């Protein structure tokens, strides 16, 4: 414990106090500079590090509870919209799970898998049915690989369907035979001759 200087303090004690005082002020400046502004605004001004730590700690507890509430709301409202990748969607859920764990809120992987499955659109019904039918618990990585595979399969089916649609002729064009000596038609459907 540092004692106050007196008239009877030795030169060594005075030099030590000057060095300690300088180091303490530098430490306080570093501490104040490292605390987020929204946590430190409105705090009572103090030059005692222990009091500043305590005040910031109390403020952080309130901020932490608010942040956890926001994380839970974000997780609860997540729905996959088929715009981005399904892997990224599930990884965002895992990211929220990790952030929540840093606030002492544990979300088991089983919960993340169930929530992710419930957040997927109707196109992923086959995966949901498979999950409900099997007697094994999927890990998050299992879910990601199965969903990515299903997404790729859906893309392939969609492109094949589009290809079939664009390459097929309507029924009336398939059964219509042109006479051999009929004039050629221009783009507007009028004869050239």
From TrEMBL:
Superkingdom in the source lineage: Eukaryota
One Pfam family of this chain: Retrotran_gag_2
Compositional bias per record (Basic and acidic residues), positions renumbered to this chain: 183-193
PANTHER family documented for this protein: DUF4219 DOMAIN-CONTAINING PROTEIN, OS04G0629600 PROTEIN
Disordered: region residues: 170-193
Name of the protein described by the UniProt record: Uncharacterized protein LOC108661588
